[in-house]
Amino acid sequence: MNLYEHTIVARQDTSPAQIKSLTEKYSKIIEKNDGKIVQKEEWGLLNLAYSIKKNKKGIYMHFKIKGAGNIIAELEKNEAIDKNLLRYMTVKVKKFDLKEKYFQKKDENEKKRV
Predict the structure, then answer these.
(1) So what's the pLDDT on residue 114?
(2) Where are the domains of the chain?
(3) How far apart are CA 75 and CA 6, in angstroms?
(4) What's the CATH code, domain 2-96?
(5) What is the pLDDT of residue 98?
(6) Is 87 exposed, middle or buried (0-12, 13-18, 19+ CB in 10 A)?
(7) String of DSSP letters for the chain
(8) pLDDT along the chain (114 residues), means of 10
(9) How many Å apart are CA 22 and CA 62, to the nearest integer?
(10) Nearest residue to 62 (alpha-carbon basis) of 4, 2, 1
C-alpha cells in the first residue's frame, strides 16, 4: 500500500454545503477504489500565492490516503472536470505526520508564550 497526501483547493465563493458534498464525493471515490482515508482536514479559506482564475483566496481540504496508485488516477480524473476546484495536488510520502496540525488556530495562551 502506498501513502499519499492529497490537497484540494476550491473556489472562495463555494458554500459550506458544497464543500461538505465535495469532501464526501472524493471520500467515496477513494473508498470505492479500495483506499483508506487515514485523516481528513479542512484548512479553511487561505490566501493564494498568485491569482488563479481570478480568485485570490481558496478553500483548502487535505486528505491522507492509504491505497494503490489507481485511486489517485481516478481522483484526479474527476477533479479535472470539477468546476468548483481551482487546483489539486498529490504527493507520495513514506510516512504520515498525524500529530502536527499545521493550519489549526492557536490558543491565545500559546500566542503569548511565543
Answers:
(1) 52
(2) 2-96
(3) 10
(4) 3.30.70.60
(5) 75
(6) middle
(7) -EEEEEEEEEETT--HHHHHHHHHHHHHHHHHTT-EEEEEEEEEEEEEEEEETTEEEEEEEEEEEEE-HHHHHHHHHHHHT-TTEEEEEEEEESS---S--TTSPPPHHHHHH-
(8) 92 92 92 91 90 92 90 91 93 83 60 54
(9) 12
(10) 4
pLDDT at 1: 83
Grid cell listed for 1: 500500500
Place of cell 465535495: 22
Q: Report the side by side order of strands in the sheet with 36-52.
A: 36-52, 55-67, 2-11, 85-93
Residue that the C-alpha cell 496540525 belongs to = 101
